[in-house]
Each structure stands twice: as C-alpha cells, then as structure tokens.
C-alpha cells in the first residue's frame, strides 16, 4: 500500500469519522497506482521518491503518466495536460529518467487512444508522435519498467480499430496495453476484448501483454462511466489469472470522475469518502 494515497491520507486525517475504518480496511490498505501529471512541479524528483519508497518497502510501484496536451478531449472533465508538444517531450523524458533501471509498471496516458475519435487528423498525427516519443523514452531510459499504453475499454475502441491505433503509436516497443482504466467493465469481458485486439495485432506479426483495471468493476458496467451508482470494488490487485499480466487498481476508488452521477458537484480528481463507501457497499 502507498501510505500517501488519497484514501490513506484521508483516513489519517479523519480517524474519528465512522467511515474511516471501512475505507482503511477495504481501500487504504490496497496497492493503488500513483498518477503523475502537470500538477507535479518537479516530476523527476517526485517519481524518484515514489519508486525509491516502493523499493525500500519491497513493492512493485505502479505509475500512471497522464499529461498529454489536449488530454481527455472527449470527456473533458479531466481536460488539461502539458501546454505544448515540446513541454510534453521534456516531461516524459524526466519521468522515464526518474524510473531509471528499477522495476516498475507504467500505465501510459489513459484516454489517449480512445480520444482520437474527438481529434482531427492532424491532431491524431501529433499525438501519435508524442506517444511514440514516450514509448521510446520509457523503453530506453526505464528498461526494467513494464509499460502499458492505454487502449480504452470494451465500449471504447473496436478491436480492429484499437489494434491499428496501438500499432501506429508504437506499442510493439513496450510490454503492451491497458484496458478498463477508470471504468467498470467486468474482467472476463475485458480479457475477451483484449484477446480480440491481440488477434488483430497478430496479423501485424506480434501480440502484446495487457493489464486490466479492476478497481471499480465488481458489479460490472451499468451504462455510465461517470460516478454511477451501485458499482463495487473489484478483485484486489494481483497477478493475472486469465491471460492478463496483472489486475491493477489504476483508478483510486473514491476519486471523482467529474461533476456528474452520484457526485454532481465534485470536480474530476477530487477524493470523496462518500464515493469510496459507495464502492465498498455497492450502493
């Protein structure tokens, strides 16, 4: 577990709250990915500290790089990212150098390939160039990291189209792709979707490993991706058992998807104990 996760920090600050014990037991003591974006003033130093702390604890760190220019072009609740391609290249290079020659799992740019549906052809070309740069930096500067480029989810990116997007972005040079990040689709359906993507990649001469975000898929998908009710925590993080490399908690349970659903006034990225308890109880 990360003692500085949003859930762990909330529990420490609110030990007397009746929700604290439930959140501590079910979320704060689970390993959850650490998201890095433009909100870190020195991403290199921050990544270095995080990976160092994981190594000292004998744990495998899971990091999310989330700062592409024009981020979340379709959903817009998490819009932002670096201001220019040049700034992004510098940022991801610092990120990769900080991981260095240490084991890690890196989830690269959630939304990036699903979002191409909302970009112009010129924007898609620019984004692919940035993703290829990120992949090359992580391959060369963080050789022991297992990097997974985000590939949407069961309802976002048909297998043939997503395989082509992954290929164009350079997935062949890293471990593979990530599915269901911040979403709710069941693991079995997600694995089946991954196998279809790999069948398409095989036509190009290779297949890729993949990971599944199980943080909130315990009750499956109910037609909404934004703070829907009656969802539940999924399988705790562990090595995969049905073809996936890992089942990970990429999304932090309790972090709002945006001002919508069961949290109409809560901005994306904001931690809510009420959202966390809903996922624990399935309410």
From TrEMBL:
SUPFAM superfamilies per the record?
Glycosyl hydrolases family 6, cellulases
GO biological process, alphabetically ordered: cellulose catabolic process
- Does the keyword field hold Heme? no
In terms of Pfam families, this protein maps to:
Glyco_hydro_6 (PF01341)
Q: Mind listing the UniProt keywords for this protein, alphabetically?
A: Carbohydrate metabolism, Cellulose degradation, Disulfide bond, Glycosidase, Hydrolase, Polysaccharide degradation, Signal
Q: Where's the active site on this chain?
A: 111, 257
Q: What is its EC number?
A: 3.2.1.-
Q: Which residues cross the membrane?
A: none
Q: Where, by residue number, does substrate bind?
A: 35, 156, 183, 225, 251
A single Gene Ontology molecular function, please? hydrolase activity, hydrolyzing O-glycosyl compounds
User: PROSITE patterns from the xrefs?
Assistant: GLYCOSYL_HYDROL_F6_2 (PS00656)
Q: Where is this region: Disordered?
A: 221-244
* Family, as annotated: Belongs to the glycosyl hydrolase family 6.
Kindly provide the name given to this protein in its UniProt entry: Glucanase
């Amino acid at each position: 577990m990360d003692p500085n996760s949003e859930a762990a920090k909330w529990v420490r600050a609110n030990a007397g709250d009746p929700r604290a014990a439930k959140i501590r037991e079910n979320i704060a003591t689970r390993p959850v990915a650490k998201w890095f974006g433009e909100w870190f003033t020195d991403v290199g130093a921050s990544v270095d500290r995080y990976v160092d702390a994981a190594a000292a604890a004998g744990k495998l760190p899971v990091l999310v790089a989330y700062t592409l220019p024009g981020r979340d072009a379709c959903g817009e609740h998490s819009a932002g990212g670096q201001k220019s391609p040049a700034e992004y290249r510098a940022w991801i290079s610092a990120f990769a150098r900080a991981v260095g020659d240490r084991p890690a799992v890196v989830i690269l740019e959630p939304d990036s390939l699903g979002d191409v549906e909302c970009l112009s052809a010129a924007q898609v070309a620019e984004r692919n160039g940035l993703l290829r740069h990120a992949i090359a930096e992580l391959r060369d500067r963080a050789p022991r990291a297992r990097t997974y480029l985000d590939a949407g989810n069961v309802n976002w990116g048909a297998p043939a189209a997503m395989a082509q997007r992954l290929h164009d972005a350079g997935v062949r040079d890293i471990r593979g792709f990530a599915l269901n990040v911040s979403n709710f689709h069941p693991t079995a359906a997600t694995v089946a979707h991954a196998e279809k993507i790999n069948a398409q990649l095989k036509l190009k001469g290779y297949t890729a490993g993949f990971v599944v975000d199980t943080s909130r898929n315990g009750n499956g998908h109910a037609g909404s991706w934004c703070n829907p009710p009656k969802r539940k925590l999924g399988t705790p993080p562990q090595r995969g058992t049905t073809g996936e490399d890992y089942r990970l908690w990429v999304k932090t349970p309790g972090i709002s998807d945006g001002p919508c659903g069961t949290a109409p006034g809560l901005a994306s990225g904001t931690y809510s104990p009420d959202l966390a308890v809903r996922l624990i109880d399935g309410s």
